[in-house]
């Protein structure tokens, strides 16, 4: 525990120095971080030849993140998909971040693979390419060939990844604790929740077996699809730190020239890709959450291949219905229906002014439904929807933002391949299909059955609960516990005011005592005098000066804080 505290303290000092370098002095001087950096160590605020104050605050936040390293970059990249938690300008800056992590030594990678598999690497692979195909903050990928001749890719976790991420997560928790007030003033309402969610995500990403399970699930769901293929993970050769996957060749989906050389119609490829993705969302409720061009391949037969299942999103049945309802209501120009589906989609919502909420949604509908097909943009719509969610503090599932981000990416891919690609035209039939499913007899029957089970459970437990309440009432033992929140700052202010009032009263009391002491009739020789005043008067004046000095110091300290 002590060792971790010392390590965090040193790292926090580095974080503070970076914050000061980019002009976030207020983030340091107005929080508990100010204790870590003396005045004389504050730096001039320049980035290269440019003053950092010529940049926006959000640009400077991004620059701070870039300098703090991979874990912080990873956090920012995750948050770039959560427009409900951060202001949109900050989300836009975080979207610019790219992890640039050099690969680690291939000899170390071989050693990790042998250690994880429990046998020499030569017994498993006939070939193992020492030059990695790619490198990231958590691991890197090598191409290899199994003893039986099958081509594979091997994903190997960095040797110090878990320790570094664990240390940085501990640091993040400490930083948020020290700066939570400042972060809330900047519009980040729940920083502790953000760190906890990120920690869960990172711990899952550190376990490669979760990615292998996701790939197997996709392979089962799409076993009958001839237009979509998921590489097979070799579970017997995979562990939490090593993942061996079937190697699949193909070109990037945006490589239009190669598609034409294979006599494939790029427009048809784009339509196939969008249909596959919307099937994942609206039919199966589980989807690949990072479909950038490098993760979407096309084989010579025109089938789509998805790779890298490190980030997978999920929607429940009710969330699917609500999400589709948002788009359907928008198409029907029904702001009230759109608002209702937003509330159904939100995990918690406390919209104080529903009229204002519906009016803003109506404005959004008016702005988009009147546009020509060529003018409509999923990117612009996603930004507007995310702005509404943030302003009204709707806590919607994180998967919703992953979907919006993915649709924006897919729209960009589609416009490269398809001359008149329109994302909304692809979404519309899936929305209608979900509405029909939602009000089908089988689904209504399932809902009635669930409601009946809930009522039966309530009826079963209600007599017992009522009996306990009556018993406690008869004994006079019924207690009601109320928990108030948000009053800590008020109590702190009240405590300071009371302390200063007491000190002021003490100073006044000593001053009055000094004045009254001048009226005393002291027998000759029993009271010493100094400069014509009795000694007791000087003692009273000294006490007055002391308490006034205490009051002055407290006032100055508060102003500095």
TrEMBL record:
The chain crosses the membrane at residues 502-524, 536-556. Keywords: Kinase, Membrane, Transferase, Transmembrane, Transmembrane helix. It comes from the Bacteria. Belongs to the protein kinase superfamily. ADCK protein kinase family. PANTHER family: CHAPERONE-ACTIVITY OF BC1 COMPLEX CABC1 -RELATED, PROTEIN ACTIVITY OF BC1 COMPLEX KINASE 7, CHLOROPLASTIC. GO terms for molecular function: ATP binding; protein kinase activity. Residues 127-440 form the Protein kinase domain. The keyword Lipoprotein does not apply. It comes from Hymenobacter oligotrophus. This is AarF/ABC1/UbiB kinase family protein. Gene3D superfamilies: Transferase(Phosphotransferase) domain 1. Signal peptide: none annotated.
């Amino acid at each position: 525990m002590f060792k971790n505290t010392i390590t965090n303290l040193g790292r926090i000092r580095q974080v503070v120095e970076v914050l000061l370098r980019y002009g976030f002095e207020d983030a340091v001087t107005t929080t508990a971080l100010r204790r870590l950096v003396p005045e004389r160590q504050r730096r001039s605020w320049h980035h290269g030849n440019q003053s950092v104050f010529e940049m926006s605050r959000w640009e400077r936040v991004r620059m701070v993140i870039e300098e703090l390293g991979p874990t912080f970059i990873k956090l920012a990249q995750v948050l770039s998909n959560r427009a409900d938690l951060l202001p949109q300008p900050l989300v836009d800056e975080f979207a610019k971040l790219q992890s640039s992590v050099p690969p680690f030594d291939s000899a170390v990678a071989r050693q990790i693979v042998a250690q994880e598999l429990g046998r020499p690497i030569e017994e498993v692979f006939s070939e193992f390419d020492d030059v990695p195909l790619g490198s990231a903050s958590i691991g890197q990928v090598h191409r290899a060939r199994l003893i039986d001749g099958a081509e594979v890719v091997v994903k190997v976790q960095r040797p110090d990844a878990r320790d570094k991420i664990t240390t940085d997560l501990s640091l993040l928790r400490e930083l948020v604790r020290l700066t939570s007030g400042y972060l809330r003033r900047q519009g980040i309402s729940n920083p502790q929740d953000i760190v906890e969610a990120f920690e869960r995500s990172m711990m899952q990403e550190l376990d490669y077996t979760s990615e292998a399970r996701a790939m197997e699930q996709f392979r089962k769901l799409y076993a009958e699809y001839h237009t979509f293929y998921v590489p097979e993970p070799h579970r017997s050769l995979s562990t939490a730190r090593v993942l061996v996957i079937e190697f699949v060749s193909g070109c990037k989906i945006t490589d239009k020239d190669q598609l034409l050389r294979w006599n494939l119609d790029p427009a048809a490829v784009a339509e196939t890709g969008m249909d596959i993705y919307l099937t994942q969302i609206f039919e199966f409720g589980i989807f690949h959450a990072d479909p950038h061009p490098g993760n979407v391949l096309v084989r010579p037969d025109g089938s789509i291949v998805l790779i890298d299942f490190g980030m997978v999103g999920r929607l429940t049945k009710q969330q699917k219905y609500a999400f589709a309802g948002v788009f359907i209501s928008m198409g029907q120009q029904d702001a009230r229906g759109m608002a209702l589906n937003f509330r159904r989609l939100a995990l918690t919502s406390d919209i104080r002014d529903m009229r204002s909420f519906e009016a803003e949604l109506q404005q959004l509908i008016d702005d988009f439904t009147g546009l020509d097909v060529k003018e409509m943009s999923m990117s612009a719509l996603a930004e507007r929807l995310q702005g509404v969610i943030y302003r009204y503090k709707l806590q919607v599932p994180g998967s919703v933002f992953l979907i919006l981000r993915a649709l924006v990416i897919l729209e960009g891919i589609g416009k490269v391949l398809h001359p008149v690609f329109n994302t909304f035209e692809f979404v519309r039939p899936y929305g209608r299909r979900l509405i029909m499913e939602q009000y089908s007899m089988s689904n209504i029957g399932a809902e009635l059955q669930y409601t009946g089970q809930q009522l039966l459970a309530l009826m079963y437990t209600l007599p017992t609960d009522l009996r306990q309440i009556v018993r406690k009432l008869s004994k006079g033992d019924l207690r009601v516990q109320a928990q108030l929140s948000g009053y800590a700052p008020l109590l702190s202010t009240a405590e300071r005011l009371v302390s200063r009032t007491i000190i002021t009263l003490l100073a006044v009391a000593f001053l009055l005592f000094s004045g009254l002491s001048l009226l005393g009739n002291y027998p000759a020789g029993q009271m010493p005098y100094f400069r014509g005043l009795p000694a007791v008067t000087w003692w009273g004046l000294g006490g007055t000066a002391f308490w006034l000095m205490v009051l002055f110091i407290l006032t100055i300290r508060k102003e500095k804080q």
